[in-house]
Amino acid sequence: MPTKDEWKSSRMESGLVFVFRTHLTLLMSSADSSNILKAVPLSTMRTRTAQRQEKYSETAYRALEGKPDYHNALSQVKLQIATQSTLLESAVIQARLYHETKTIRLANGTTPHEGRIEVFTKGVWGLVTDSSYSNRPVYNAIAAGLACRLLFGPDYGGSVVPKHEASVRFGVARGRAILMSNIVCKGNEKSLFDCQWSTDTSTSHEDSLSVVCKTVPRGCNGYVEAATGNLTSPGYPQSTVYSTDTDCVWKIVNKAAKIRLSFTKVDFNGSTLTSTNRLQVFDSDAYSSLASVTSSTTVTASSSEINVWLKAPAGSKGIQFHAYWDAAPCIESISSSGYIRSPGYPQQYPTNLNCTYHLLKRKGLLASLSFSNFALSNMVQGVCGDYLQVFDGDTELSPSIRGPMCSTTRPADITNFNVTSTKVIVKFTSDAVNTSVEKGFEAYFSTSEPNPIRAGNYTEDKGTFTTPGYPSAYNREEDVIWTITTKPYKTITITFHHLDLKLCCFDDIWILDGRTSYYYRGSIRSIVSETNVMQIRMESSLDNRRNKINASWTTECRQVFTAFSGSIMSPNDTTFDSASADCTYIIRQQPGYYIKLQFSTINFEKDKSCGNYIEIHDGSTDLFPLLGERYCGGTLPPTLNSTQNILLLRFRTQSGKNSFSLTYSSHPKECSSGLMKDSDGSFTSPGFPIGYPSNTYCVWTINLDQKDLQIELTFDDFSVGSQGTQCQNAFVRVYDADTVDASRVMTTLCGTTLPPKLRSTGHSMTVVLNVFGSLTNANGFRATYAGRRLNGLFPYGTAARDRTLGSNTYETMEVTIEDGFPFGDSLREAVYIGTNGIISFQKGSAWPRLDSSSLVVCAYCAYISNIQGVYYHLYNDVSENRGVLEKASSEVQDFTGMFSFSASTVLVVTWDRVQQSFPSLSASASDMGDATFQVALVTDGAASYAIVQYRVGHMTWRYPGRWYTIEMGVAKGSVTAFQPNVYSGTEYAYDIDKYFGNTGYKGSWMYELGQIPSDYRQVCRDWHSRNKVYEKRKERETGFANLPKCPCSRRGFFRNIVNQWRFHRK
């Protein structure tokens, strides 16, 4: 047994070693947050420390039992454990601090120097994205170089990996948050977070910024802020051989003026201009290319920044150059609107300036100049040293509107009234001396129309109006407005007798009636208002030489009501004659709502012919049937309910005093939801086909009594919500269950396109209509359902005795079909199977492309690498292949409803666990998944179909970005016969097995391929197809007498051939 000192020493040593190792392990693993947090969460550390404390305490008591200094030894153990706990917590804290200071990394690269740029903030790693690489090449190049220098040091630079390549090489990080978008860096920042960036939600994970970092020559990349200077290629004037493909980007800034950059020497060193060997200058926006430099030249930026980008290929000397920059001449042009500023604003402007601003406008418009800041030198002895002057015209000899202006007092807004000019000129001059107050100016230039002419404000019941100067053309710029106002119970009808407009750009008519506005540029006959006020506005342009109007108006007793409820009464006006009334009242509600009328009073002069009456039509015109009857006398009509969302009331009288009053209200039709158990049935949305009401929620549940059936749901008519990235106002959602379960959503539908058939995986389905806003022009839907048997893939592989394709990726396998295969309107003798998910009816068509002019079935058209997994089998023998033929017949019958269809030939082609290939990329991709899909070409000799099935759960290709599309569908040589799959060319094609096809099954689609007319040759082929089974049997000879007589004869064949020959010979 060890002594007390030996025990204490060994225990303390082992404890310190444990603490040191743990501390070191924590720091070494701190590069990855998931590792550190998983390895040493603080709570776990404390728990483990407590457990060790118990363990050490028990050992100490056993070792020290009976010893006189047992209390002292125990105190040492407790001190040791407390120290260990403190060290452990310190290690965790230090590791976390170290980790959080690392705010950038490259992810998913094969080496540490490449990958997706990710940044760390607020405890998470996220993406840096850019929605448009092509529009922001310089910004991304600067950000790439900065990221590499931050990660690996000042000798490094970076090259941006194109998105279409990065998505394959580094993957699409769907689970990562997008933390930075559209980053703008200068190149001298200490962190990417010092750059400008946004959180643009329009970017996607495919837009991740990815880079390859590499060492670059000294002088490659830089940020310079100076009024003048020199810029040279790396190593200039000596030649530098670039070891890698290199990008060098320089940003030059002169805050006081625009930059002029002059190249004095450009040497290609015997190379040529290519995409990887070029020298390009970009404007201040880092997008607009000012020049692709091939020789000595001078370029000028639009403002105070300019960008130079040199690309050099590996192993070359690249392009050598020398350039210098200085301030450009101070001249600027602005069209229509924009800011003008003194050079260098808001910093102090330079001395000895002579700047000219050309403010361009359309002839006829007014120009305005509004100053937001103004600080020039003060006037000395009546003279301005620095001043601004504005000229109203096309030259500096035009009259001066304002100026010279100086001092620090902000000038009043300036407006020019010279509508015949196309320009306003602003001159800015500074002297040789600047003071501290001279910060410059900022002003906003805008153009506007002159005030309109109000040619008439009419209150009469009828009249005419014309353009000023009619019948001559109205040539002025000012718009012309006419306003017509009548009695509250009347509406206005305008008729245009003569309307002639320039019909271009700025000449048109707006008509507003207080509720609706109408816009016209073509011919107009008449317009009827819905209120008692109408305004007509003719927009005109200067010197149009055409605009003229001659129109008249009339009024009538008519009112339109659109509120959900209200009251209507006969006119109570001294000028209204109730003895000869002819009034119309229209109540219009949104589709799906119905109207209830309740009369309060009715007082009509009695007459035997019922000449004083009110009648209600259940629709928009008097051609619709009456609700009730024609009401006259003094008896109140009963409560009336419409069956439409519009009612028309006619109030007519011939004598005496007559009046009425009523109230109306609207209500939606109730949902006819419920439980449906029959094997087939139908249902409609409320109000169909007129339209559904707003704020409606309806649920239909289908739960078949026959549990071995699936449900096939078909929408026969569909118009719900609006189609787009989101369903606006309303949608239909279908659930693969008998309850509303978010995890069982089959699809969400909206728009006006008929949805494909949907099939449940079991015997139940739920349909929900959710209307959460008002919507017009949407009539709802009508749906039918039926129980169907289960389906699946055709047999394939070696067990099905299939054949396999050859080893050439771009060749096709020809399969001859003895009886021919209808495709389009002709009979094809052969089919060509391609490895790349394509079946063609043209020899040699192996490229995975779906084009309307081709003759192909694109099952899953994409480049495929492991072509050994492609199988095919031709079934045309009834005796041996009855199961396959019957299955194909059943599926076609189920889809088309043609129950007489009987398959005579089926060609099954299967791509089993094939992988996607990317031949255009130099870098290979790994772990991209595989896919299994199948095509069955089916024909009965006259009609043909393609059954395309994507094996559910086995379509696992990893989405490589929108640049690698998968095309699906059928092309028959013309646009009218083109049948692309709805998911073709979209990201959803990579998950095609998750979506319901037009057959109603997940991942199952059917296309009609061809139809040929039946003739005696087809009759003969049918006869042969039915009876060729006897050719291989001994019963053929003995049973020949039992065969049907062949309708074909040698004489008939001979005559047919000879007649064809004679016809073509002619």
Describe it.
- The chain folds into seven domains: 84-215, Roll (Mac-2 Binding Protein); 250-329, no CATH class; 331-448, Sandwich (Jelly Rolls), CATH 2.60.120; 455-557, Spermadhesin, CUB domain (Jelly Rolls), CATH 2.60.120; 562-668, Sandwich (Jelly Rolls), CATH 2.60.120.290; 682-789, Spermadhesin, CUB domain (Jelly Rolls, Sandwich), CATH 2.60.120.290; 798-1011, no CATH class.
- The strands form twelve sheets. Strands 1, 2, 3, 4, 5, 6 and 7 form a seven-stranded mixed sheet that branches. Strands 27, 29, 32, 34, 36, 38 and 40 form a seven-stranded mixed sheet that branches.
- It contains ten helices and 62 strands.
- 15% of the residues lie in helices and 38% in strands.
- Keywords: Disulfide bond, Repeat.
- It holds the Pfam family NIDO.
- The helix tally amounts to 10
Classify the secondary structure makeup into a structural class: mainly beta
> Rg, please?
42 Å
- Residue fraction in strands: 35-45%
Mean pLDDT over the full residue set: 82
Poorly predicted segments: 1-100
Q: So what's the oligomer here?
A: single chain
Number of strands: 62
When the domains are counted, the total is: 7
The global form is flat
Characterize the largest beta sheet: strand count, sense, and whether it forms a barrel.
7 strands, mixed
* Termini separation: 122 Å
The percentage helix is 10-25%
InterPro entries: CUB_dom, NIDO_dom, Sperma_CUB_dom_sf, SRCR, SRCR-like_dom_sf
Domain CUB: 220-328, 327-448, 454-556, 557-667, 671-788
Domain NIDO: 859-1012
Organism: Pomacea canaliculata
